[in-house]
Design brief:
The complex is a heterodimer of chains A (258) and B (334). Chain A is an all-alpha fold and 258 residues long. Chain A is built from 15 helices and no strands. Chain B is built from eight helices and 14 strands. In chain B, the strands form four sheets. In chain B, strands 1, 2, 3, 6, 13 and 14 form a six-stranded antiparallel beta sheet that branches. Chain B has a four-stranded antiparallel beta sheet with strand order 9-8-7-10. Chain B has a two-stranded antiparallel ribbon with strand order 4-5. Classes of the chains: A mainly alpha (258), B alpha+beta (334).
Amino acid sequence: MARFDKLELESQSPAGSRAVQVARPAADDVDWIAQADAERRCGQYENSLRHYSRALELDKSLVIAWLGQAQSLVFLDEFVEAELWSRKALESFPNNSELLAARAQALCRTGDLKQALAVCDGSFKQPGQSAYRWIVRGELLVASRQDFDRHCFDKARLLDSDWLVPLEAALVYLHHGFYSRAVERARQAVEAAPDRHYAWYVQAVCEIELGLDTRAHSSLQRCLELSPGHVEAERRMTDIRHRGFSPFRVLRRFFGRR
Amino acid sequence: MQCANCRFENMPGVDACGRCGASLQMATATLNVHPPRAGKWVKRLRKWDLWRHSFRLWHALTGNVPRLGGTYYANVPERPLLLRLAVPGWAQIYCERTLLGWFLLGLYALLLAFATLFIGTQFGSVLLGLALACHAASIVDIVNAVDDGLVRRVSLFVGFLFGVAMIVYLPAGWLATRFAVPRVIAVDSPPFRAGDVVLYAPATAGFMSPHAGQVVLYRLPNLFTAARNHTRYFLAGERIDRILAGPGQRVVWRKGKLEVDGEPSALAPLDLAHCPADVDVTAAAGEFVILPSTLGVDINAIADAGQISRIPAQDILGTVYWQHQPLSRLGRVR
């Protein structure tokens, strides 16, 4: 139907099939950003980082790509590199609030809370509103064991209803070892996006940490239904199936951090 | 020309943004866009970074304290917190004051373990007192966070302490005394020496009912015995020895050999060196035969050893099963 070829139909989801993407003659920076975002929503931070780099190869003025790189490095546990990279990005985009927040997050994870707080304050002095800044502020409060973190994460959710916001809050809690709070946020992400396997996976990880094996098993099952062959989910599922009784796990369940 | 950083519209031809100073030539600038990466081993080593952990330690020590009563710790419901006061440190762990919680719990467990090891001695009592103090400290720490005045805090502490004593320590103490009561040996009576501590299970608890072959703590019947050399002994008090035969059985002890109902028996009193020479006794119903080898006197000088060998069942106080002190002779009493 040649007469419909030029119609601008709503594009496929960013995580659409690769065959379609490969068929395109050349991906532009927006495509790379979209692909990076899609990979990030699947928890594939390595691929996400690569796609952001490809986008930057085409256009170095994409702040979102610099930011995405820094965030991906943080999620890949490369905090020193994330701090260095966000600092480098800030040289090109001075006082960019998101990049400042990314630097604060990297600093927080390296343990330099004092400087992280200063940088985060600097980020809040910049105009505009973003969920990411509130997530970072929440993380700083979690790291410094102050009891207002949930307000920050709630604020982030108010600013952005994307399911990735509570999921990243869950990842923050997971990193700092607050598993019951993490599972609460992961549940919010699952409720917002029940069709995303990564949300189910993160929820399962939180449940495993809490010793809720049965619930973790069902979460992993759902994750595998949505994404058959998910290697990490399969590995964790096998772990749950094959592990026997452990008194340490029982103790952990009783005395573990809530 | 719009700035990518702040969206400010700049005049065409300028190199940097007039508002934020960001370069406007970024799109065509020569910049490395591939971030540096950390190797697998570097990431592993960083997990052991003491500097990073020192921050966590500091914040664990100086973190928020839970609040009871008025404005309490937002994420901590009051009732579960109160229930967790039963175990020292548990409430602190629940309130995410993990370091303090584990410290209190660990110290309590350590003190309790050592107190159990030295139970029956003064040192053991001191350790037990310290363990209880550790539990009290855990309660004080929680109660101290109450916003109200000193009187309310003190009364809360007393109330919680009383509650814990009633709910935890009273049943635990009652249960412990069903299975193990320490008894300090006052005088040398082989195989025990003065100062030794043994554990016995009270007969009334029914944990170990007395039967032939068991080493028991028993009460001597209060009686005067006429000795051969015109000396009279008054026998009383508690002794530890082995039951040789049960109710209705006849025991013949001759030249170090024991016969029960005419059959040779492998059982023997605890101290063979101080056994009566010859005894022929039959236990009546509700009586056990215990040859008194641990009296601390020469039993052969006592005229009627058979008379004091028959011990009524109600005078058997319990089964001695474990020697607790000194640690060099720790083990089961056989």
